[in-house]
Amino acid sequence: MNIQLIDLTRQYQGIQEPADQAVLDVLHSAKYIMGENVHAFEAEFASYIGIKHAISVGNGTDALVLALKALGIGEGDEVITTTYTFFATAESISAVGAVPVFIDVELDTYNMDPNLIEGAITPRTKAIMPVHIFGQPCEMDTIMEIAKAHKLYVIEDAAQAAGAEYKGKPVGTFGDISTFSFFPTKNLGCAGDGGMLVTADDDLAIVLKALRAHGSGEVGQRAYHYLEGMDGEITVDEGTDNTVYNPLKYYNYLIGHNSRLDELQAALLRVKLKELDGWNHRRIQIAADYDEGLKDSGLVTPFAMESGKHIYHLYILQSEDRDGILKHLKEAGIATGVYYPVPMHQQVVYRGLNYREGDLPNAEYLSKRTFAIPMFAELTGDEISYIINKLTEF
Ligand SMILES: *Cc1c(COP(=O)(O)O)cnc(C)c1O
């Protein structure tokens, strides 16, 4: 057998007809930027998450950068985040000139330990950036309580958790702004790069829309008025949207970015969003099969909080002999991945922050033990049994 970690060919085959049609329709329309698919997908995604505004961007990393900028976070500020995440979380904080302050994770959920947040707060702290790692929601009640008490913003990095829920509420609805990634291997992925911001705040939505496209046009003007505390009149014709044909495109009000989701990706994502709940449901079933099949294997299987809906973006195991088991699986044709081999506080690029070995012991311990086995909705029963057998055999 040959089983990939995430088999995107099979995912595509499952939606081939509508996906091909959606993409061809965009090609025929010859409207590639900020067209009807982008607007429709934003509305559909907002409604899926259950939040007022969804603003699409070029990728999940840009989404984090724009979120920080919209909240006015930059030079001299600190943002508390988890050390056990994908680099983009930390990178976005550094990219706006702020300093990431890393805290350790819980050994069972792999998420930031909320008990460590208050100890990391300083007069410079502006925000907390929790990451719903591997698809498991963070302890949002506690995080929001601490944020409120200390007047801090919360940016949820939900790149791995589209459709996950905390106490029956979708992740992405707790923070001031939340971000998603549509990188192809995410549980909702496109055929390239893509990302999304969501917020319930009307003003932040305007600023985010302005930041993704050069701070120009009507939305740039509105964002400028909001940021400058002006009530000034917006003189723009409401009928024109901010497309390539909008003459107001060449009137700029903020230093922004060029980070847009394109029509091809949006059209494809509209097809895939309809499948997301079914795919997540299947992931949860596969995880239950793995849990059951591996319960006597000596491997540490994932812990799922009762208060959350974990959507198993990745199915993570722990082994004392990770190298040995990965080799054994490779020989059996089973792909694996190591998430994450180096916590953020131990990355070369963050040497200047002066963390020492042992500072964040749980993440350091996990980084030597954790690995992912195949997890995608199209995995068959035979493949699941085969994977369980090979793991148990070892
Ligand atoms: C994938 C990911 C991102 C970045 O998303 P891109 O679309 O790849 O830029 C950010 N944070 C986490 C936790 C991720 O897994």
Descriptive key words:
single chain, 394 residues, alpha/beta, 13 helices, 38% helix, 12% strand, globular, binds pyridoxal-5'-phosphate
N-C termini distance:
17 Å
Bound molecules: pyridoxal-5'-phosphate
Portion of residues within helices: 25-40%
| Count of helical regions | 13
Architecture overview:
This protein has 13 helices and twelve strands. It is α/β, with parallel strands linked by helices. It has a seven-stranded mixed beta sheet, with helices on both faces. Strands 7-6-10 form a three-stranded antiparallel beta sheet, with no helix packed on it. A two-stranded antiparallel ribbon has the order 11-12. The radius of gyration is 22 Å and the shape is globular. The two termini are 17 Å apart. The site of pyridoxal-5'-phosphate has 15 residues, from helix 4 and helix 5.
List the helices and strands and how they pair.
Layout (H helix, E strand, L loop, with lengths): L7 H7 L1 H14 L6 H14 L3 E5 L2 H11 L7 E5 L4 H9 L3 E5 L13 H4 L4 E5 L10 H10 L3 E5 L7 E2 L2 E2 L6 E5 L13 E5 L2 H10 L5 H11 L35 H31 L14 E2 L5 E4 L3 H10 L29 H7 L2 E4 L7 H13 L1
Parallel strand pairs: 2-3, 2-4, 4-5, 5-8
Antiparallel strand pairs: 1-9, 6-7, 6-10, 8-9, 11-12
Helix pairs in contact: 2-10, 3-10, 4-5, 4-8, 8-9, 10-13
The structure holds pyridoxal-5'-phosphate (PLP).
The site of pyridoxal-5'-phosphate has 15 residues, from helix 4 and helix 5.
Short structural summary:
This protein is an alpha/beta fold and 394 residues long. Helices cover 38% and strands 12% of the residues. The chain has a seven-stranded mixed beta sheet with strand order 1-9-8-5-4-2-3, sandwiched between helices. Strands 7-6-10 form a three-stranded antiparallel beta sheet, with no helix packed on it.
